[in-house]
Amino acid sequence: MNVEVRTITAGDWPLFRDVSLRALADSPDAFRRTLAEAQALTEDFWRQQAEGSAPILVVLEDGRGVAVGGVFTPPDSAVAYVWGMWTAPEARGRGYAAGLLGDLVKLCRDRDLGVRLHVTEGNQAARRLYTAHGFKSTGVWEPLRDGSALQVEELQLVE
Fold first, then answer.
1. What distance in Å separates the CA atoms of residue 20 and residue 11, rounded to the nearest whole number?
2. Nearest-CA neighbor of 78 among 117, 119, 108?
3. β 3-7/114-120 pair status
């Protein structure tokens, strides 16, 4: 099996869309956007996301996206947010999420940024990954998205 970690570029927008839609179909309660909302997004949206300044990493197995994660830094912020972490069911247990998280944290540290992320209540696998990498609760909870009873908790990397 050929495994590659790639930073998404403008030309990778179909790959990014595909892996994002698969993530939403597999784990609908892990993301702020619903599958239906994502399916309705235009090619222009996916292109803009893929060519934006916020790095998005994808793990490819034999050319197929099986894991993804990104970093977003709000304007004039000293804190970046890891977002969109997901691994395909058939690729879980291979360390891809831990590798992506490590790479994303390094990108933030290289820019002297603090690192935060959100985890949905009940997502114990993600919580274990994040706490194993030094993330701790900030005590901030908010709704996953409008109309959802689920909450997300903000975690911060503690050095």
1. 16
2. 108
3. unpaired
**Which structure tokens are listed for 146?**
């409008």
Stretch 38-62: mean pLDDT: 94
pTM over 0.90: yes
Domain residue extents for the chain: 3-157
Q: What are 99-147's pLDDT values in tens digits?
A: 999 999 999 999 999 999 999 999 999 999 999 999 999 999 999 999 8
3-state SS, residue 118:
strand
CATH of 3-157, one of 3.60.15.10, 3.30.1330.60, 3.90.1150.10, 3.40.630.30: 3.40.630.30
Q: What tokens appear for 26 in the block?
A: 């597999």
Tokens of 22: 């698969």
**In this structure, is the dihedral angle defined by the CA atoms of residues 88, 13, 61 and 69, taken in order, positive or negative?**
negative
Q: Is residue 121 within 8 Å of 111, Cβ to Cβ?
A: no
Q: Can you read off the two tokens belonging to residue 150?
A: 């689920």
